[in-house]
UniProtKB/TrEMBL annotation:
Chief location bin: membrane
PANTHER family referenced in this protein's UniProt entry, alphabetically: EAMA DOMAIN-CONTAINING PROTEIN, OS03G0707200 PROTEIN-RELATED
Keyword list, A-Z: Cell membrane, Membrane, Transmembrane, Transmembrane helix
GO cellular component: a single term: plasma membrane
Name under which the protein is recorded: EamA family transporter
Bilayer topology: Multi-pass membrane protein
Signal peptide extent: none
Source domain of life: Bacteria
Subcellular location(s) of the protein: Cell membrane
Domain EamA: 18-157, 183-323
Entry-linked Pfam families: EamA
Length: 333
């Protein structure tokens, strides 16, 4: 006779829920690149894709900012923002969400979704390097080795992209395959750097304002700046860039998914995962992001999977995990 199955204790249920939220957030964030590249195949350019994404997400971020800023919400009372803090939030929104998103979507026109995700996961190494340069933060030998491994892993994935560069070059406006990989890599690296600056500058504000409220406020600012950019680019190019004319209904459907399921909703998933599991465990689960990108890109974009791609991605994931244990900061988006 088998003993009765042990019912789930509250702590077990909490952990399972945290794992589910963290995993869902990581996979959903990774889907952003897949949806963007699907829209590029319809003829949409990066300015139209990111413009539609931010236009749909803006009301949702405004709701988040309003709700989390209400008096009595959460464990702590509402914290009024000083003029200095408002400018800081504006700067963080411009750098961490507007610049990072713009560079990212521009870069996705040139490189594979797998390489984009691998470069973005260099973020902890970039944070560490910038902290060492600006704040004279001491870097240990183990951290140097982990950073070197991370960059070596990206180079492996970069080599894979060179082999299949003709696929990316098809949406790169006639740019040669090798040049497309180089341009896209630089743009996505700038995206990772912009987000690293956001992480470095947001530490004190997160502690005072709260992560959800900061995300709502900073992202709302980024959305507005992106919409201004979209209008300026469209007018400045005579309607040739950022245009929606002639695009199929599929673009609007994918944009709705991009703004909700791959932008706003995963932010909440990740925050719930962190609340239930802690930042360290949730960030480690987030390492599934690069792997999920590879498989989704293979299924939906027909991007090939090679041994070099898998090996490079594995090296990046391991290096980032090591950096996290040594004091790095993992990227969620």
């Amino acid at each position: 006779m088998h003993p009765p199955a042990r019912s789930l204790l509250p702590s077990d249920t909490r952990r399972l829920q945290g794992l589910a939220f963290a995993l869902a957030g990581a996979v959903a964030f990774s889907g952003k690149a897949i949806l963007a590249k699907l829209m590029y195949r319809t003829g949409a350019d990066a300015f139209a894709v990111i413009g539609l994404r931010m236009a749909i997400a803006l009301p949702l971020f405004l709701i988040i900012a309003w709700w989390t800023g209400r008096a009595g919400q959460g464990a702590a009372p509402r914290v009024p923002l000083s003029r200095r803090e408002r400018w800081q939030i504006a700067g963080l929104g411009f750098c961490g969400y507007y610049l990072a998103s713009t560079f990212d979507f521009l870069g996705l026109q040139y490189i594979s979704a797998a390489l984009e995700r691998a470069i973005l996961y260099l973020n902890p190494a970039i944070v560490l390097l910038l902290s060492a340069l600006w704040f004279r933060q001491r870097v240990s030998l183990a951290q140097v080795v982990a950073m070197a491994l991370a960059y070596a892993g990206v180079m492996l994935v970069w080599g894979h992209d060179l082999d299949v560069a003709h696929m990316a070059a098809a949406s790169a406006g006639g740019v040669s395959p090798g040049r497309a990989v180089a341009i896209g890599s630089v743009l996505v690296f700038l995206s990772a750097t912009a987000y690293a600056l956001y992480l470095i500058g947001s530490g004190r504000l997160v502690a005072r304002v709260g992560s959800a409220r900061l995300i709502g406020l900073a992202s709302s600012i980024a959305c507005v700046v992106t919409l201004v950019q979209w209008s300026v680019v469209w007018l400045g190019s005579g309607g040739t860039m950022g245009s929606l004319q002639g695009l199929p209904i599929e673009v609007y459907t994918l944009s709705l998914l991009n703004a909700t399921a791959c932008t706003v909703l995963p932010m909440w998933f990740v925050m719930r995962g962190v609340a239930l599991l802690g930042a360290s465990t949730a960030s480690q689960i987030g390492m599934v992001g690069p792997l999920s990108t590879i498989w989704m890109a293979s299924i939906w974009l027909d991007e090939p999977i090679s041994t070099r791609l898998l090996a490079g991605t594995a090296v990046v994931v391991v290096a980032v995990l090591v950096l996290g244990r040594l004091g790095g900061t993992a990227r969620k988006a």
